[in-house]
Amino acid sequence: GAVVSQHPSWVICKSGTSVKIECRSLDFQATTMFWYRQFPKQSLMLMATSNEGSKATYEQGVEKDKFLINHASLTLSTLTVTSAHPEDSSFYICSVSPPGEEWNEQFFGPGTRLTVL
Amino acid sequence: SQQGEEDPQALSIQEGENATMNCSYKTSINNLQWYRQNSGRGLVHLILIRSNEREKHSGRLRVTLDTSKKSSSLLITASRAADTASYFCATVDNYGQNFVFGPGTRLSVLP
Questions:
Q1: Average pLDDT for residues A14-38, to the nearest whole number?
Q2: Helix and strand element counts for chain A (H, E)
Q3: Please, what sign has the CA dihedral across residues A44, A48, A51, A57?
Q4: Above 70 in pLDDT, residue B4?
Q5: Residue B7: its pLDDT value, please?
Q6: N or C terminus: fewer CB in 10 A for chain B?
C-alpha cells in the first residue's frame, strides 16, 4: 500500500502551546487528505478534509480556529492544534486516497500521539 | 448519525480458532471497508466490498455483505496471535460524501 508518514509520532506539550503535525503522502500526489482524531479505545472521528490549494472542510463540531489545517502542496498537509489543552490529548491520524478515489481505500499514516499537560 | 456499528465490541479467542466480527449500518452505501489497527498505530486497509457484491476473500479473510439487512461480517480463519488488533468497518454512502467508521471490535488471540 501507499506510504503515508506523520511527524512527530509523539509529542508532549504544555497547556496553551501550539503543536503542528505533518502528514506526507510519499507515493502519490494527493489533492485531498483527511484528518481524524481517536480517543483511547474509541473509533476514529473525521475532523476535516484537507484540500490542496483551498480551505479545509471541517466536520460539525470541530473548531476551525482551534485546528488549523494547511494543505500547501500535493504531498503535505499540516494540522496545528492551537492553544492546546489537556482535553485535546488524543491520537491524530491522517489519511490519503489516490486522486479520484477519495472514497475508496484510504491509506493511513502511523498517527501522532498528542499529550497536553 | 452513527454508521457501522460493530459487534462484538471485544472478542477473545484461542489461536487457531475462527473470529467473526459483524458490522451494521443505517443508510445506503456505495461500499464498505474493513480496517485493522494495532495498538497505538495507524490503520491498515484489509478489504473493500462494494454494494453489488455479496462476498469477498483475501487470504484468511472472508467478508460478506447483506444490503437487505444492512450488515457485513468479517471472518478471520485459523487466527494467529499476530491477528490481535482492533478491527473497524467503515462505510461510504452512495453519494461518496461520508466515510464513517464504526466503534470497532477489539480482538485478542491467545497463544
A1: 93
A2: 0, 11
A3: positive
A4: no
A5: 76
A6: N
- In sequence order, the 6+-apart residues with CB closer than 8 A to the CB of A113 are A9, A10, A11, A91, A92, B40
- Using omega within 30 degrees of 0 as the cis cutoff, is the peptide bond preceding A40 cis? no
Nine cell digits for residue B14: 484461542
| Angle subtended at Cα B80 by Cα B43 and Cα A105, rounded to the nearest 5 degrees | 25
Q: pLDDT confidence of B96, banded at 50, 70, 90?
A: low
B44 and A106 within 8 Å at the Cβ level: the answer is no
Q: Is the peptide bond before A8 cis (omega within 30 degrees of 0)?
A: yes
| Closest Cβ–Cβ partner in B41, B92, B106 for A103 | B92
Alpha-carbon span A93 to A23, nearest angstrom: 9
pLDDT, one tens digit per residue, over B17-61 is: 999 999 999 889 999 999 999 988 889 999 999 999 999 999 999
DSSP 8-state class, residue B94: T
* Set of chain B residues whose Cβ sits within 8 Å of the Cβ of A46: 99-100
* Cβ neighbours for A65, distance < 8 A, ≥ 6 positions apart: A82
- Say whether A93 and B104 touch across the interface (CB within 8 A): no
SS (H, E, C) B7-52: ECCEEEEECCCCEEEEEECCCCEEEEEEEEECCCCCEEEEEEEECC
**Looking at the partner chain, which of A103, A110, A113 has a beta carbon nearest the beta carbon of B30?**
A103
Closest CB to B104 among A4, A43, A45:
A43
Sign of the dihedral defined by the CA atoms of residues B45, B56, A104, A100, in that order:
positive
